[in-house]
Amino acid sequence: MIPVTKPYLPNRRKLEKYLDGIYERNWLTNNGPLVEELSRRLEAYLGVDNLLLVANGTMALQVAYRALGIEKPLNGKAAEAVTTPFTFAATASSLEWEGVKPVFSDIDPDTWCLASDGIGAVITSETRAIVPVHVFGNACEIEKIQAIADQNNLKVIYDAAHAFGVDYKGESLLKAGDASTLSFHATKVFHTIEGGAIVFKKRDDLEKAKSLINFGITGPDEINELGINSKMSEFNAAMGLCVLDEMEENFSGRKRVWDIYREEMGNSLIFQRFNQCASNNYAYFPILLPSEKHVHRALESLRSEGVIARRYFYPSLDSVKVFNCGYVTEISRSISSRILCLPIYAHLATEDVKKIAQIIMGVVSE
Q1: What element of type H or E holds 89?
Q2: Residues 10-22 pLDDT 10s
Q3: Are the beta carbons of 178 and 200 closer than 8 angstroms?
Q4: Alpha-carbon span 203 to 49, nearest angstrom
C-alpha cells in the first residue's frame, strides 16, 4: 500500500543515543535538557526568536490565543476571530474551545488561502483577531492582512502547521503576525511524533505562554495564571533532534516527488498558485479536479491500485454544523469539493509517483 504520507524516521542509532541519555538522567518531562536543546536549535534553523515547544499543534493555537488575550469577551458578547473555512478542523475548533467564535471569510480561488479583500466585511465590534492559514505551506498575503489588523486593532495568529521551513522575502514566514503556530505531528515535514510550537513576536507573550503550558505555575509556590498542561516530553524532543539533523535529505526527497508529479501531469490539471515571494517546503501535493465526481473516481481508481489519497480539506468548515456558520463561503466549498492530496514523502519510489500521476490523468481524460 502507498499511504498519502509516511512519517520520516531518522537514523535509529542516533535516536537510541538520545534515549540512553534520557534513561541516565531519569528526566522525562518538565522542560528537560533535550526540550531546551531542540528549542535553541529550531530557533537557529528557522531564523526566529521566542519559540516555545508544546504538546501538539492544536494546543499551540489555544495557548497562543490565551497568551495574546483574544479569548476575552467584548461588549458582553463572545469574542470573534476571522478565519478561513478551507483548513483542518483544529483551526476553528481550537477557537471554539477557547470561547471565541470563528467567523469564516472566503478564500482566494487561486492560492486557496484566506482572501485579504474579504476580511473587512466580516469584522465586527466583537472581533479580536485574524487567524489565517498558510494552506499547504503557501504564504498568505501577510502585508495586506497586517494592514487590516492594524487598522482595526486586531491580533494576527497564523496557523502555520504546514509552513515549517518556509521563507518569505528572505526571512522566516513564521515571523509574520503576533504569533505563528506549528504542528509537529508525525505526518508533518518536521515532526516530534506529537508536538508543536509557537513563535511569538514579543518576548513578553512568550514568557506568559511559558507559564500557561505549565498549569499557570510561575514559581515553587506560585500560580498566577489559569494554565493547562501542554509541555513537550524529552522523548518527543529526542525524535525532533534526530529529524532536524536530516531535514535536507527529507526536503530533497519531497522535492523530487513534487517535480515528477508536475512533469508527468503538465498543465492538464489545476494546481495551487504559490506566493512568488515565498519558498516551497513540498509538504503536500494537492490537485484540483474538474468536479466532485472526478474526485470519487480518482479515489476509487487509486484505491484499487493500493494507493491512498486524501480530500484535504473537505468539508469546507462553513458547512459543518458544530461551527454554526449560517452562510456559505462559495469559493471554499467549490475548492473543497474538488481537492485531492496525492501521496508525497521523501522515499516514495519514482515508479510509484509516475503510476499515481498516470492514474489521475486517466481519470481526468474520461
Answers
A1: helix 89-97
A2: 999 999 999 999 9
A3: yes
A4: 8
